[in-house]
Write a structure and sequence with these properties.
This protein has about 270 residues and is an all-alpha fold. The chain is about 75% helix and about 0% strand. The radius of gyration is 64 Å and the shape is rod-shaped. This is DYH5 protein.
Length: about 270
């Protein structure tokens, strides 16, 4: 309740030399307390005059601080929400980038495969005509298979006792009969190539069989015919071949040099 006017009225008294606690004590103890109190109140008023604006400003700043803090909290909430959305979008982006990279890798792999396939197709393009011709040849072989098998079985069954000239004559006669009966067969039929492969013929040659056509045909008849063959072998070539051929099967030979009895010991016995 102290006002500025009251303090101004006190100023003349406060400035007097004898207006102090020590002098007042000499006069009256109660007066001394009142003197000290008035000095303190005047001093308090001076200090409080500076403090009150500060308190008001403090209250104002605290209000601003509270408002700013509320705004900060709201902003932090929004920031957290946006950060969450950003994290979700970032995860979607990372997933999309992985899918993109996977698609790029697949596309590159497909591109390589296409290039390889194109190169292969271009490289095999020249084989088209040969494959077409081979397909036609296979089709003709299927058509002529019955006649070819008939000629092969006839050769195995009936050509054994004859020399090369009569064997060729038999084949010509059989072909003539097949033409009359309209049985298809291959005009360029090679009975040797049909009944045995080159690897087997090479093995026979290493075992001592001569390499001429008649000897190879005899070897086919010996190995392919269902009946036991009778070998007329004045030069002993057939005997040498059989001995070498059946050596690993436990062949046993008895008798004189010119007569051969063959006993083959194997799992077929």
């Amino acid at each position: 309740s102290i006002t500025e006017e009251t303090v101004e009225l006190l100023e003349p008294y406060l400035g007097m030399e004898d207006y102090n606690l020590e002098t007042a004590k000499k006069v009256c103890g109660n007066v001394a307390g009142l003197c000290s109190w008035t000095q303190a109140m005047a001093y308090f008023h001076g200090i409080n005059k500076e403090v009150l604006p500060l308190k008001a400003n403090l209250a104002l700043q605290e209000g601003r601080l509270a408002a700013a803090q509320m705004e900060l909290n709201n902003a932090q909430i929004q920031l957290d929400e946006k950060q969450m959305e950003l994290d979700q979008v970032q995860a979607m982006y990372d997933t999309a980038m992985k899918e993109k990279q996977a698609l790029l890798d697949d596309a590159e792999a497909c591109r390589r495969k296409m290039n390889n396939a194109t190169a292969l197709i271009e490289g095999l393009g020249g084989e088209k005509h040969r494959w077409t011709a081979s397909s036609k040849s296979f089709q003709n072989e299927i058509i002529n298979l019955v006649g070819n098998v008939l000629l092969a079985t006839g050769f195995l069954s009936y050509s054994g006792p004859f020399n090369q000239e009569y064997r060729n004559l038999l084949l010509q006669l059989w072909k003539k009969e097949m033409d009359n009966s309209k049985i298809p067969y291959s005009n360029d039929l090679n009975l040797t190539g049909m009944l045995v492969d080159n690897a087997t013929v090479g093995e026979w040659n290493l075992q001592g069989l001569p390499n001429d056509d008649l000897s190879i045909q005899n070897g086919i008849i010996v190995t392919k015919a269902s009946r036991y063959p009778l070998l007329i072998d004045p030069q002993g070539q057939g005997k040498i071949w059989i001995k070498n051929k059946e050596k690993n099967n436990g062949l046993q030979v008895n008798g004189s040099f010119n007569i051969l009895y063959v006993f083959v010991i194997s799992h077929h016995s």
